[in-house]
Amino acid sequence: MSRVAVVTGTSSGIGAGTVADCIAWYAIRPPHVNVDRLVVRPLVQAAHIVHRVSGTGDRSPAGA
């Protein structure tokens, strides 16, 4: 099972063709357009799902 499937519960990820399409889009921007950052993630990660595990330790700041 892929890491994507384990983390998201699905087998859908981003394939090489999708990444290539994004790079092609970037490459054909007009010379006067600046793309600072291009973030590509699967739709299942668009909600910024965070998995937290609660610990049992003292959470007070060090030295407090």
* Main sheet record: none
What share of residues is helical?
Answer: 25-40%
Overall average pLDDT = 74
Q: What class do helices, strands and sheet pairing give?
A: mainly alpha
Total count of helical runs of at least 4 residues: 2
Unreliable sequence segments: none
- Report how far the terminal alpha carbons are from each other: 44 Å
Question: What is the helix/strand order?
Answer: HH
Gross morphology is: elongated
Query: What's the total number of strands?
Result: 0
**Percent of residues in beta strands?**
under 5%
Based on CA atoms alone, the radius of gyration comes out at 19 Å
Task: Lay out the secondary structure.
Elements lengths: L2 H6 L7 H12 L37
